[in-house]
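Section 3.1 - Work completed
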Amino acid sequence: MRRDVFQAIADPIRREIIDTLSGTQMTINEVSEKFEISRPAISKHLKILEECGIVSVTQKGRERFCYVNHENLIPAFLWIEKYHKQWEKRIDSFENYVNQLKNENKSNE
């Protein structure tokens, strides 16, 4: 099964893992210590993130280190940004409408 970035970020635990790893490399054990779910559950989430290309896992000696491939989050960011801009325009338009109503009410008083 081929996974994509949207499947990866759909789960709140995986989003937390991405946040946890965002600025650093950590072992799988270090990642699992940050969560109140089992290490095997964290490993499954990391496997999905790895399949999506968001997290890479490298072996150094006995330890497996995880880190985020930030560039692979860009497709999700661009998609979300498109809708952010649309909503921002709608909210600005609504704010202008509300201000116009307020001004009309003040002038009618």
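Second construct:
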Amino acid sequence: MFKLEIRKKLRELINLGFHDAYRYIHPNKEGYTFWDYTSGAWQKNNGMRIDHFLVSSSLINIVKDVKINKFPRGRQKPSDHTPIEIELD
């Protein structure tokens, strides 16, 4: 139920005219920013992309790159999240 509510809210923001910058740069690339600690999710790359950069139509054309920095998640005793980084022109 909670996931559906979050997806609905994200869709509402997209419908207001915001753009998912990661999907704009990487239309078909799999990319996750969260891996649960259970069931070897990190090792299996069974994650979710729950962190986003939403940008307005006036900014989408200056998005140069969006990267998911997996390095911190692979360290010892990491957070279950990893940073998503945006580069603007």
